[in-house]
Design goal:
Layout: H1 3-8, H2 11-34, H3 47-75, H4 91-94, H5 99-120, H6 124-150, H7 156-160, H8 165-188
Length: about 190
């Protein structure tokens, strides 16, 4: 969308564009969830990269809307999550070991988008810090839910945090290189 088109678009046109972008974001999340490395109890995927990237590229409202749409699709039983069969398990899957991380996705997209809006996307270093912070947000509800579900006597940090640290550092670096350019392009064109 050109700057002129963005400035002259009617409210319904802007809403339709935003809805299509949120749908595309939820589809990207689905694809990222399907390329997984099985790991117990939480699989390794690229979804955290996409969640943080959606926030950095689309801002807090639209990035969070894309993640919310993805979660609603999963809750409705669509096979959007990692390891869900063709007919998804919906809320039952969301109540499992990854449930807290799924909630963390919403928070991370919002935080990454807010930090991008406040200028954290101006340099790769600042974008990296924003991506790290947003990524860390995912672990708060994720580990809390994992401990509640499996029991605090289990090695929760060894299962739900430690295996992911190096990968998340790499994903944050990649997000810092890729998504701020998208945010700058979208905002320079008048936003969505």
């Amino acid at each position: 969308m050109t700057l002129y088109a963005a400035l002259t678009a009617t409210r319904p046109e802007k809403m339709a564009t935003a809805a299509l972008v949120a749908l595309a974001g939820s589809m990207l999340l689905t694809l990222s969830a399907k390329f997984a490395i099985p790991f117990y109890p939480v699989p390794l995927t690229m979804t955290t990269f996409v969640v943080i990237g959606l926030g950095l590229a689309l801002g807090p409202r639209l990035g969070t809307a894309a993640v919310a749409l993805y979660l609603l699709q999963g809750a409705a039983g669509l096979p959007v999550f990692t390891g869900t069969p063709e007919k998804g398990l919906g809320l039952l899957y969301m109540a499992g070991p990854t449930g807290g991380y799924l909630l963390g996705f919403l928070l991370a997209a919002f935080v990454a988008g807010t930090l991008a809006e406040r200028g954290m996307d101006r340099s790769p270093l600042l974008a990296f810090v924003a991506a790290l912070f947003a990524g860390a947000i995912i672990y708060l509800p994720g580990l809390l839910w994992l401990g509640t579900l499996l029991g605090w006597d289990k090695p929760i940090l060894a299962w739900g945090l430690m295996p992911f640290i190096l990968g998340d550092l790499a994903k944050a670096a990649l997000a810092a290189m890729v998504f701020p350019a998208a945010w700058s392009m979208i905002s320079s064109q008048g936003g969505l």
